Amino acid sequence: MIKKIALFSLTLTALLSAAQERNLKNIKKLTFGGDNAEAYFSPDGKNLTLQVTNKQFGVACDQIYSLDLTKSISGFQDLQLVSTGKGRTTCSYFMPDGKHIIYASTHGADHACPAPPKPKDGKYLWAIYPEFDIYMADKTGTIVKQLTNTPGYDAEAVVSPDGKKIAFTSIRSGDLEIYTMDIDGSNVKQVTFGLGYDGGCFFSHDSKKLVFRSSRPKTPEAIKDYKDLLAENLVAPTEMEIYTCNIDGSDLKQITHLGKANWAPFFHPSDKKIIFSSNHHAVKGYDFQLYMINIDGTGLKQITWESEFNAFPMFSLDGKKLVFSSNRQGAPRETNVFIADWVDTDEAEDVQTTNMKKHISYLASDKLEGRLTGSKGEKLAADYLEKEFKKLGLKPYDNTFVQPFTYMYRTNPHDTISKGDAITGHNVVAYLDNGAKNTIVLGAHYDHLGFNEHNNSTKANSKGEIHNGADDNASGVAGVLELARMYSQNSTKENVNFVFALFSGEEDGLMGSKHLAATLKDKVPHVSAMINMDMIGRLDEKKSLVVGGTGTSPLFPDVIEKNKPAGFSITQETGGVGPSDHTSFYLKDIPVLFFFTGTHNDYHKPSDDEEKINYYGITNIIGYVARVVNELATQETIAFTKTKINAEKKVPKYKVTLGIMPDYAEHGDGLHVDGVTENRPAQVAGIKEGDIITKIGDCTIKEVYGYMDCLAKINTGETKIVTFIREGKTMTVNVTF
């Protein structure tokens, strides 16, 4: 990212979210009010069994019902009671004949509903009722067999697709473990043995494996908490991961490593993927979405987008339908059952994290010596990028992939007389011709600071040190390469052409993008938009992402909002002018978007290395960009708008620096400090990362331009009182500029 300062100037509805749920078609609501969950298909896919609480109809706590999918469904009256209507039930499942259902119930011990657990020390808790035993009933509700009769919890029973086994969770060993038994209840065998809650299991379609959720506490404190709660017949289901194993317990594997609550897993019909519910993405609050993941733990993909609760997914045996529970389309606190046609999407369109790690690792390696424009390292990088484009079968832009350009650059900042040195840089540009009317440019710069020959480092005395620029901007380059792979290798012919542009000379003043923008409109069909990715590799804990340029087209704000990844905090900034290559295209009246995860302590330092990249973040951001591009590709036109920031606000000239890296998002309460440069005035005075600067002297600061206005009034050598907020407290320091 070029070293300049610039200002980057909700609700999801069913209509907006539906466009993103590409695997789900013809979503239909099956229940209407109350709390309805854990709906599972009969073997022939014509019926469901589910648990229902609906006080309006006298169902005080969970009871088991069946639902005939071949008939018209309009309300509670279409449900057929299967359980006794006494006690509390859970986890029903069809037997192989489709005529009997197994479920767990407390009615054998007490006909009253057992009291639900109350939160303890602020923890959300599940009750492990010791009265639960597993029963088998016919569809009229007549119990034909009790399958378990041991002290303590026996529940969560499911049947293998081959009809030979039942798997369930039991506390008979003293811990919550998974067991199997033959279909008649005999031959009980323990499957799991690790301390923790192992439960909610399901069989693979070939009946050879189990997938389940597990808490598996590791630390002494977590183990104690788990055991203490279990002694009270409680578990805290807030930290669970997905595991698989063979039905005899062998080949145990942890599939997810996401943190928080990952649960309700079910095998995709291929048995090569797992669908599950998770809130790992949520920064705060209650938000569960369905995700898909490969059985080797790769390829995490979000499936649902609407509402804040989606769980209990199950595929029909033929794989054509998915049933799940959700809070969508209902009153507050309602959970209803939904059914949808399942559509397997093109796997070529799934973002591959391994590809991005490969690209970033090479581009940010010492071998490329920091990729300074015009250097040997830049040439090595350009060769690599050209080869990657050729592998994808893309066409060169304007006859060749590599586009040289020359500019004059003064490496001595005090030289105001000479024209500087001539530098030749090399853009690497590819073209995907879909024969469409419009063209979208996807761009990022690949140059960086080299050995700090051009004095752009934020680390003092760093000449001779390699500045690898993993985030700035190998991250954005990897994003462009991955999008190029997705759009060139998928089975869809988008209604738009693509230019994949990788710029050099950005760090010296947007030189490469200026060169391309000057000729672009003459070389390719109508350019409807340019999307720039610069520094997208360091997503923070709050999952904060700035999207700039949203004011350059009236289409952009809604498109950005409705396509955002779950849990992300998106700051939309309207300005078309910013500290990166999209500016060059905005100045040619092209609508632009700019994706940016923010500066950090390693910005423009030798420490901006590959191992610090947040690959979860960059994977989600590239998926986000792809969703935005897919929607823009359907537009006949994308209107261009001049932004107020560009038209009305000029950057003031200033003679001094404070030596900080600002948070470019507009917070309104001052300038948020993202990082502090060593041995510069701010660091010397004691200002730290995370501080919020509100005043310099008597000059008030609310955002980046206010900060620049204040600096413009100060001369070298002056001392001013700088006011800032740290951890909620207002503080002051004397700063000599």
Automatic annotation (TrEMBL):
InterPro entries: 6-blade_b-propeller_TolB-like, PDZ, PDZ_sf, Peptidase_M28, WD40. Residues 667-736 form the PDZ domain. The keyword Signal applies. The keyword Signal applies. It comes from the Bacteria. Residues 427-626 form the Peptidase M28 domain. Residues 1-19 form the signal peptide. Pfam families: PD40 (PF07676), PDZ_2 (PF13180), Peptidase_M28 (PF04389). Keywords: Signal. PANTHER family: PROTEIN TOLB (PTHR36842:SF1), PROTEIN TOLB HOMOLOG (PTHR36842). Belongs to the TolB family. This is M20/M25/M40 family metallo-hydrolase. The lineage of its organism: Bacteria, Pseudomonadati, Bacteroidota, Flavobacteriia, Flavobacteriales.
